[in-house]
Design brief:
single chain; alpha+beta; Beta-lactamase; 2 domains; 22 helices; 23 strands; elongated
């Protein structure tokens, strides 16, 4: 080897040594930053308001999360690291090991949720010892009114594997929250907003490289939702129902807007959306009265004598010349070889159609149902008014009830439909089952004289930051017909007013601030050891003589499992008095007590 090549070699070797060894410390940070990590920029979930748009029913408060990315978790001293991390965060080693074995290694998995900053600070220094374990700022969903409106607003909770699969291309990770029930679930995509994205360089140990953050796409806040619910009316109705298992609906018939929807028992939405307390959640789920069950749209039960409104509608329309034709009531009527009794077994003599509704006379309705209308005509009218079908209200979980027919009975029980089945159907008993919201729609059909609007809860969508209206919802016709003669509606409303003035509701409806038209109902519940149990129903509208756009519908259903006190019409009396005096529940009670209301 010559002198020149030798010199060249020595220079190159010297440079290589200097680069690899002498400058190693200088380049270590650069070399260690071997990966670019994509991270989400969470969007701020939209708030939920009542129709007054002044106080939020659901809002966000700042919180912090500790999350784990399995792909970045150190493989060195793995078992020891898991044990230490479990002790630090008060988690089981099995829980952490389960997350580390997840198939989606690049995903973030939730370790600890809903921390205050003071709580997070306790962990901050030590978290840096565990690659792949990071903290991030988040928001916690908070429901200021606790259990009030819980069946309407719903709650958010941790997303499940199955939910993430269904929403695979929408940017969800397993550390995300998602709407589980109510409006939170129904309008998840409007509330959630758009997720942003940022890039961070991370070291081999999973630590962020300082000043390496790059915003790729900013997040966009979710929209605020303004509901049709009136918080003041909701408060009145909740207090009027009290701690009685049941449901209530207050509806604006001319639009379909729900002003109030109550189901009891209720649940505190914060129990599910905050750090879930498994003990409390278990108590709620095991409660025999099912607090998570929204009875206003899911309790399908006998409409009892409230169904007589529909039967009389059909009778007036089909037999226009028999509006004044009486039926003789001797306390019972024979259908085949079986006696069907009126609730007043002594008999009332001749009963006209108008008196039949106000007195809730079973014999009259047995007679016109079996001898005049027949099962097929009754079913045709019931189907027209929506029984057996969902109302399509904008809440998840609605049921359609049961509208029985000869075919239905044959398929379900392999039995032939009998005249006795028609007799039971004629007074709203037997196999027939309807929800409170369906009963509200029947009254809407009468008030609007042939039109039913789809019941709805979402009134407006607004931008969260500016408050600008994005979309305003307008009424949608669910069903409409001009086949019913206008005189039928006039007469039927007059008959319903008579129920309050001189009929079955006279003794309990004593408010003098508004004229109410109504129908009472008493449904047979389960038979206890000592006696038959009964549910209490009241369907109504007011003001009686006002235009439809000025009227409201109130439907109350009190389950048979409560102690019998015939509470539905009593609750309605309080509700109407409070609404039409623009007073609180307490003020209405005081006023009605002053009037000598016997049941308060």
């Amino acid at each position: 080897m010559g002198i020149l090549p030798s010199c060249v070699f020595l220079v190159f070797a010297s440079y290589l040594f200097r680069y690899q060894v002498a400058q190693n410390a200088q380049h270590r940070d650069y070399v260690d930053a071997i990966a670019t990590q994509q991270n989400k920029l969470h969007s701020l979930r939209g708030k939920i308001f009542d129709r007054n748009y002044n106080i939020a029913l659901a809002k966000n408060v700042s919180s912090y999360q500790i999350v784990l990315t399995p792909a970045l978790f150190s493989k060195k001293h793995r078992e020891q690291s898991i044990k230490e991390l479990a002790e630090l965060l008060n988690l089981s080693t099995e829980f952490i090991e389960g997350l580390l074995q997840k198939r989606m290694q690049e995903d973030e998995y939730l370790l600890v949720d809903n921390l205050l900053y003071s709580e997070l600070a306790v962990y901050l220094e030590q978290l840096g010892n565990y690659p792949g374990v990071n903290w991030k700022r988040n928001t916690k969903r908070y429901y200021p009114f606790n259990d009030s409106m819980s069946h309407i607003v719903g709650y958010v909770g941790n997303i499940t594997q199955n939910e993430k699969k269904l929403l695979n291309f929408e940017g969800y990770t397993l550390s995300d929250k998602i709407g589980k029930t109510g409006i939170e679930k129904q309008y998840e995509h409007k509330l959630r907003g758009e997720v942003g994205q940022k890039l961070n360089k991370v070291t081999a140990t999973g630590k962020n490289v300082k000043d390496s953050e790059e915003i790729v796409r900013n997040s966009k806040p979710g929209n605020d939702l303004i509901l049709t619910i009136d918080r003041n009316i909701q408060n009145i109705v909740e207090k009027a129902i009290g701690e009685r298992v049941g449901a209530a609906v207050v509806l604006k018939p001319s639009t379909g807007e729900i002003l109030s929807m109550v189901s009891y028992p209720r649940f505190n939405s914060n129990i599910f959306s905050s750090s879930p307390d498994k003990r409390l959640i278990s108590q709620i789920r095991k409660n025999i009265h099912s607090p998570l069950f929204n009875r206003a749209i899911q309790a399908s039960t006998s409409p009892a004598s409230t169904f007589k409104i529909l039967l009389l509608l059909a009778y007036y329309q089909e037999f226009p010349r028999e509006w004044n034709t009486p039926v003789y009531d001797r306390g019972y009527v024979m259908v085949g070889n079986r006696a069907f009794y009126d609730w007043y077994r002594l008999g009332r003599g001749w009963i006209t159609p108008s008196n039949a509704l106000s007195l809730s006379n079973n014999v009259f309705f047995y007679t016109i149902g079996v001898d005049k209308l027949g099962v097929n005509t009754i079913i045709r009218y019931a189907d027209m008014l929506g029984l057996g079908n969902k109302t399509n209200i904008d809440l998840p979980g609605e049921v359609g009830g049961i509208l029985p027919s000869p075919r239905w009975k044959s398929l379900r029980y392999r039995e032939v439909w009998q005249d006795g089945d028609t007799a039971n159907l004629s007074i709203g008993q037997g196999y027939l089952a309807a929800t409170p919201i369906q009963l509200a729609n029947i009254l809407a059909f009468i008030v609007n004289e042939g039109t039913i609007y789809t019941p709805y809860l979402l009134k407006e969508i607004r931008e969260q930051i500016s408050g600008k209206i994005v979309e305003r919802y307008s009424p949608k016709v669910l069903f409409s017909t001009d086949a019913i003669h206008s005189g039928v509606f006039t007469q039927l409303k007059r008959d319903m007013r008579k129920v309050v003035v001189s009929g079955t509701a006279q003794s309990v409806i004593n408010t003098d601030v508004v004229d109410i038209a109504a129908k009472t109902g008493t449904g047979q519940g389960a038979e206890s050891v000592d006696e038959q149990q009964y549910s209490s129903l009241f369907v109504s509208f007011a003001p009686y003589a006002a235009p439809a756009e000025d009227q409201i519908i109130v439907v109350i259903w009190i389950d048979a499992i409560n102690e019998w006190e015939w509470w539905a019409p009593k609750a309605a009396n309080i509700i109407y008095h409070a609404i039409f005096t623009n007073s609180t529940y307490e003020e209405a009670i005081a006023d009605l007590e002053e009037k000598g209301t016997w049941y308060l």
